[in-house]
Design a protein that fits this description.
This is SWIM-type domain-containing protein. InterPro entries: Znf_PMZ (IPR006564), Znf_SWIM (IPR007527). Keywords: Metal-binding, Zinc, Zinc-finger. The chain folds into 4 domains: 69 residues, no CATH class; 51 residues, no CATH class; 107 residues, no CATH class; 60 residues, no CATH class. The chain is 53% helix and 8% strand. It contains 14 helices and 4 strands. It has a 4-stranded antiparallel beta sheet with strand order 1-2-3-4. β3 and β4 form a beta hairpin. The protein binds zinc ion.
């Protein structure tokens, strides 16, 4: 007969048996990774889950709860995270990509070679990913100017996230009270979305003089994207244009400059070229990058462009045949 208690088993096994209970994982994810919940709502929800699934005596959950202010997003609402929460998944994506092209049995040289190949593959992928948002616009679902402006400014993925909020602002939000004082309108917004219903109403402040809009859900601080409640208030306040102050550069199409490599080169302290020269170099890199970006989805046109560049190289070689090579000294 086995006399072992729970404490004799490694923690991970104790946890596994709880995590396999139907629905517990989803309930935990919903309450932990919830950008709209506040700290007291989190604690009530957490306790509800502990009671329902009989987890109150579990040491791991007790420990995790005791350090909740160190890892639960609801406790970081006053910090500008601007999408930091999503970074873990992006890192996982990077690791997966490198994992596809390397393995632990590689020698250093092999690893270096594959690493370089992977980086090149990623640059090519990035160029392709940059192409569509730069030169095409996705379908908009509303006739609002704001949605058009969002599609022009933001990357495709971020646009779809914001588009969801714009649509939800028309479908699930309505105002239950508006008060005005000192030039600030305070709206109490009800959100009927079943995913957020549990967590109640939201308060949005709007200052017309400088188009400042803030919401108690603090989604902008957390993700860098305005929430549906703010879009609702902007529409009610007859604001037609997307307020530029809420365009987080990191989510825009042009966050990676086409001529970033040239720019870095020209910023190098070793380079003592004058400003005109630096500007000229940047322009040249920009023009080449621009052409490649525009042609990236058309292999035949890319080949023609490459041929033209090769012809130009021949001309350049001809023109510089008698010049002394540049040295670093
Ligand atoms: Zn909100």
């Amino acid at each position: 007969m086995c006399n072992k208690t729970n404490d004799d088993y490694p923690l991970i096994f104790q946890l596994g048996s709880h995590m396999s209970k139907k629905g517990v994982l989803k309930r935990l994810n919903d309450v932990i990774w919830n950008e709209r919940i506040n700290t007291s709502e989190f604690e009530i929800e957490w306790q509800g889950i502990m009671d329902e699934y009989e987890l109150n005596d579990n040491k791991w959950f007790k420990d995790m709860f005791s350090i909740r202010d160190k890892w639960i997003p609801a406790y970081f609402k006053d910090c500008h995270l601007l999408g930091l929460m999503g970074k873990t998944s992006r890192c996982k994506g990077e690791n997966y990509f490198y994992g596809l092209m390397t393995n632990t049995k590689f020698h250093l040289i092999e690893y270096h070679d594959h690493f370089e190949t992977t980086k090149e593959a990623q640059r090519c992928l990035q160029r392709k990913n940059n192409h569509d948002p730069r030169y095409t616009n996705p379908d908009t679902k509303t006739k609002l100017l704001i949605e058009d402006e969002v599609s022009e400014a933001f990357t495709r993925t971020v646009f779809f996230e914001i588009q969801k909020e714009i649509i939800a602002s028309r479908l699930t939000c309505y105002s239950i009270k508006v008060e005005e004082y000192d030039g600030i309108n305070k709206f109490n917004i009800k959100d009927n979305d079943k995913d957020v219903k549990h967590f109640g109403d939201f308060e949005v402040s709007f200052m017309k003089s400088d188009c400042t809009v803030t919401c108690s859900c603090l989604r902008f601080k957390l993700t860098g994207c305005l929430c549906r409640h703010c879009f609702y208030v902007l529409r009610m306040s007859r604001v037609e244009h997307f307020p530029r102050k809420y365009i987080s550069r990191r989510w825009t199409k042009d966050v990676v400059s086409r001529s970033s490599n040239a720019y870095k080169m020209c910023q190098s302290p070793k380079n003592d070229a004058n400003e005109d020269f630096k500007s000229m170099i940047r322009d040249i890199y920009y023009l080449v990058d621009y052409c490649v970006d525009r042609l990236v989805s058309d292999m035949e046109k890319l080949k023609l462009y490459r041929e033209k560049l090769r012809e130009m190289i021949q001309d350049v070689d001809e023109d510089t045949r008698n010049l002394q090579p540049m040295t670093n000294t």
